[in-house]
Hints:
With about 100 residues, the protein is of the alpha+beta class. The protein folds into two domains: about 1-35; about 40-100, GMP Synthetase, Chain A, domain 3, CATH 3.30.300. Helices cover about 55% and strands about 20% of the residues. The protein has a three-stranded mixed beta sheet with strand order 1-2-3. It is elongated, with a radius of gyration of 21 Å.
Amino acid sequence: MENNNDIEKISEIVKRVLNRISNKIEKEDIRKNPIIDWEKIWIELFPEESIFTEVLGVKNKNLLIKVKSSVWLMELKKRKPDIKKTIEKRTEYSLLDIKFFR
């Protein structure tokens, strides 16, 4: 049979470890790794385009966007510089590139 004191001790250890991990994450330079809801930003800035796209996230400072049709793929690639500027202005996050693909 388990001892309640042992369970309490284990829960306290787990709590301390999780607090330390949480504090370490918070102390890391959050400005380098901002938490941004890319999908929400994309829909807000480009509502029409969001119907034909899916934001997959950011990897190595590249915004990855899946496009549903070749026509939209070409259009978005053509407008990439302006789209990038608009997103960077809104998020204050410097992207290396935006990768549109099918």
